[in-house]
Amino acid sequence: MILRSAVAVGDDSADMSPPPESFVTALADPAATGRLAARIAPDLAVGDAVMLEGPLGAGKTCFARGVIQTLAGTDEEVPSPTFTLVQTYPTPKGTIWHFDLYRLADADEVVELGWDEALTDGILLVEWPDRLGPLTPADRLAVRLDGDHGRTACLAGFGTWRARLAALAPRWCEAAP
Length: 177
Hints:
This protein is an alpha/beta fold. The chain has one domain: Rossmann fold, CATH 3.40.50.300. It has helices spanning 30-40, 60-72, 115-121, 161-173, and strands at residues 2-4, 22-27, 49-53, 86-89, 95-100, 122-127, 140-146, 151-158.
């Protein structure tokens, strides 16, 4: 795990304070991405928003699958919601709303998908969060996945997630590979 100070991850337009510290960890393969997500999942609660950033094929859906399967306590199939745009999954901790905003042309379209309900009553996993524009939650965990030959995950907290990430990231990232 590497700690980076003041590294900008994600669009910080909804949070005017300085960029947060970020934590970077190596991920050897897709299974490591799933294991990192499984370590983060128990610390998520209703009202949390996790923004999954990265290019096509970086592992955003793999990460979401790890969170969903961990919280649901099942190996349930978790497809990418690329065509449905949003999938919901009931869990003992609350409903997970998995959004894939790749195909959205305008941020306002996400409201029609149940965005307001998800923000108040759910745990949000959002692929392609750059499409949210002004709807980006001020309090959020940004997870940036990168790499063609071995992946890295860069975790950054915004709003209330700053302090939470500082406390939780060392445990999350200690055994990632």
